[in-house]
Structures are given as C-alpha cells and as structure tokens.
Amino acid sequence: MFTHKAIAELNALEMMVYNYVIKNKNPVMYMTIRELAEAAGVSTTTVLRFCKKMGCEGYSEFRIRFKLYLEQAEVMPMDFGTSEIISFFKSINNDEFNQQIDQAVQHIAAAERIIFVGVSTSGALGRYGARFFSNVGKFSTHIDDPYYPINSDMYKSAVAIMLSVSGETEEILRLASQFSLHHCKIVSITNNETSSLAKIADFNLSYHVPQQLIAGQHNITTQIPVIYIIETIGKRLGNINAAK
After folding, report:
1. Which of 10, 19, 52, 79 is at a distance of 20 to 30 A from 1, taking alpha carbons?
2. Hey, which bits of the chain come out as E strands?
3. How many angstroms separate the Cα of 37 from the Cα of each of 33, 45, 51, 208?
4. How far apart (Å, rounded) are the C-alpha atoms in residues 18 and 154?
C-alpha cells in the first residue's frame, strides 16, 4: 500500500499524515477524516490528497484498504519500532527502487576515490560504510569531523557519499557546498528527497521512515534503511570489481 514511489511523491504536509498513520495505526482505524487531520496537524484537504496519492478515491476507501493492509502484515512487537522497518522494506520491494540503487552504483563505480561524510550517528554509519566498501574491494575513507580540512586534491575523481537523516544539518550542508563548488560528485542518502542536501546532491536516495526525536532534539530515527542501502550498493560494487 505504502510504496516507495507513492511516499516519495508526498509533500511535507502529506508526510506528516503518513508519519502519524504509521505511528498510530490502531487509533487511525477508528478516526474520522477531521480527527485524523487535527491529530496530524493538517487540513482535511491534505488528508484527502494523501489518500489519493496512496491510490484511494477518498478517506473511506483508505480506511478499508488500510485495515486490509494491517491484517496482512506480520504480527511483530510494536514497542521495538518494527512497524516502520517493515513498512520501509515493503515500500522498496519493487523495480523502481532497484533501479535507483543501480543508478547510485553507476555514480560511484567509476570514482577513484570515495569519501563517506556524516556527523554524529551518520558519522558512525559513514565509518561503517567506508569499511564495508573497502572490504568488497572499493577503497573508501570517511569524514566525521565537520571541520576537517579539505584540500583540492581530495575532489579529483572523487564521489562524496553524504549521510544525513534530515538533510538539513548545517555542518553537512557546508561540506556539501565545498564538494559541489569543486565539482566533486555528491551522492546523498537522506530520509527526505526534498531536503536541502538532496537538492545539492547529484543523486539522492531517500528511505522515508517516520522521524523520531527525544526531547525535540535527539534524533533516534531508525538507521536500518541506511545500513541496507550502503550494504546493497557495496555488494553490487563488489560484483563489478569481481567481474573485472
């Protein structure tokens, strides 16, 4: 029901509806359109647009199809956040997402130098990505210090793989601007393809899972989609190297 293509077409307000629905599946089953709009902080018109982008004629059809969607889903413990993970893997189970991965591989395969860039949790994932790529025969490095000195030689025949959940982290955007200014290709992996980082990048992959914050600032959004994307790209790069 929630395909990657459909989710990617949602605007910021419609994403608010999607995030609320995914996090509050059972209550949504019994909500009127006005109640859902109020709970998600949007208008009823936005809810209707969301329903249509999910392939439904209206809110009534959405509730029926959503009920069937839940009944077909595996029974998993909800306190672990597995519903978001299951929704992600269901949304990418199609040729379109597979083609996006192939496009990312094409951007990266020809590069002589690969640099993973991220801070905080994304920095840790950048270190992991650099090691994983190196393990499959594509030597890579990482930058997790937003003030790391960058010289012009770093940009030659390089691809910067930039990781950011929000795509709006000031330090990452500053580094992205430097890479872009020196004509270094950028592949970004973000949660939202309308983010500033996604717009700066030459190519962007988005995973569209509900963002979770503690105390309004500490981001604990699941990073399983990022690990999956990194490993999938890495394995395909490994296959290319093995075929040479």
Report:
1. 79
2. 113-117, 140-143, 158-164, 185-190, 203-206, 213-214, 218-219
3. 6, 9, 12, 20
4. 40
Residues with Cβ within 8 Å of residue 78, at least 6 apart in sequence: none
Mean predicted confidence (pLDDT) in 90-94: 83
Structure-block tokens of residue 59: 């809110």
What percentage of the chain has pLDDT greater than the value 70? 90
Element (H, E) at 192: none
Q: 114 forms bridges with which residues in the sheet? A: 140, 159
Looking only at the bridges linking them, the beta strands covering 185-190 and 158-164 are parallel
Q: Of 158, 153, 156, 139, nearest to 202 (Cα)?
A: 158
What is the pTM (predicted TM-score) of this model?
0.67
* Residue 140 and residue 187 in contact, taking contact as beta carbons nearer than 8 Å: no
Q: Hey, is 6 helix, strand or coil?
A: helix
Determine the Cα–Cα distance for residues 209 and 223; give it in Å rounded to an integer.
9
Q: Say which amino acid occupies 165.
A: V
Nearest to 144 by CA among 172, 112, 165: 172
Alpha carbon separation from 56 to 34, 66, 71, 82, 154 (Å, rounded): 17, 10, 18, 25, 49
